[in-house]
Amino acid sequence: MLTSPRFKPDEEQKRKIRTFHRLSSVVRELDYEAFPDTLYADLNLTLTDKDLAMCMLRHLDKDIEKAAEKIIKTDESRADKVRSIAKCVKGKTLVELIEASKKAVDEINVPTYIREELKRLKPTTDLVIYTHIPMETARIYIRRRIDPLYNYDGETKIIIFYATVLQHRNEVLTGEILFMPDENFRRKLKSRRKEYFQSKISGRSV
């Protein structure tokens, strides 16, 4: 782990370390790092109280939802499951995806166990979200549910998020994926952020 000899967690950062370490044992993916002061979180089933992905697929097409449920039960890797599910939505339009996403978001909220913690992140802690859920769905949920908590007080701060980008032609989904923030991407992201902040402290250029 990259650290700085000048860096020492303050009391609030120590509290966050304890709090998020405890929460990380009961949710899908949650990781707080005091240097740089950042909370990393997978969106679905960490920052949602129901399965946002499956709820969106149900509103998109119940047959697709059933097919996705079968894929989820296979022994494929998480990334391969997402690729297989993406093929199931081939032929659906972006408009249909967005409408299904809005309906799903109406049914889902941020779990009570983390609502107050999200409100306590600012002003120092960055929030970085990544998800295998499509970009369109993630954007709507973050705007409606996460942003009002994170930015409930004080100056607005950008929420950084990375979601799966589905390929489309003429706004019709092809079943292929252009980008996915998989586990390898997430490891590299954390490493790059540490290197960047370390360089700022040491005065090196990046």
Uncertain stretches: none
Distance between the termini: 18 Å
Number of helices: 8
- Roughly what percent helix? 40-55%
Shape: globular
Number of separate strands: 5
Q: Roughly how many Å is the radius of gyration? A: 18 Å
The oligomeric state is single chain
| Structural classification | alpha/beta
Helix-strand pattern:
HEEHHHHHEHEEH
Strand content: 15-25%
Mean pLDDT: 93
Largest sheet descriptor = 5 strands, mixed
Care to describe what's here?
With 206 residues, the protein is of the alpha/beta class. The protein has eight helices and five strands. It has helices spanning 11-24, 52-60, 62-72, 78-88, 94-107, 112-119, 135-150, 183-202; strands at 30-33, 38-42, 126-134, 160-169, 172-179. A five-stranded mixed β-sheet has the order 1-2-3-4-5. Helix 2 runs antiparallel to helix 3 (62-72), helix 3 (62-72) runs antiparallel to helix 4 and helix 5 (94-107) packs parallel to helix 7. The mean pLDDT is 93.
